[in-house]
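Hi V.,

You were right to ask for the full record rather than a summary. Here it is.
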Amino acid sequence: MRIGFGYDVHQFTPDRPLWLGGIEVPSEQGLLGHSDADVAIHALCDALLGAAAMHDIGYHFPDTEGNEFEGIDSKILLRRVMDMIHKAGYGLTNCDITIAAQAPKLAPYIDSMRQCLADVMEAAISQVSVKATTTEHLGFVGRKEGIAAYAVVLLQEI
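Predicted structure:
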């Protein structure tokens, strides 16, 4: 068994869609990033890679390589990470993601995120937990400057 932890943060920006957990969430602002800036998937990728001791998302998908990853759908990155994990001899036992966002309210979208992530990882929905919280108006998340996400995963040898 291998445990991994991931964290990601992106600031809000106007004129971009908000992608979280692989789905588009209705919002007046999206997140700024080289890819689609899906903080939940980025944290999940880092947790998966960390559990397998395979560096981090920036190592495998750098933002310095021209336009290869610019604007890329983070679900594609997650699928590639899962392929790397499987090639290394590991399978997903479960993952748990917490999204910290003061706004928008995410409760109506949690089940869709879980299903989307499970589909991309070819896992059962029971293996995927997604939760949302606020920061009670504290810090950059509380000031509605951006969103953060935390993820933990448990891998097992296959």
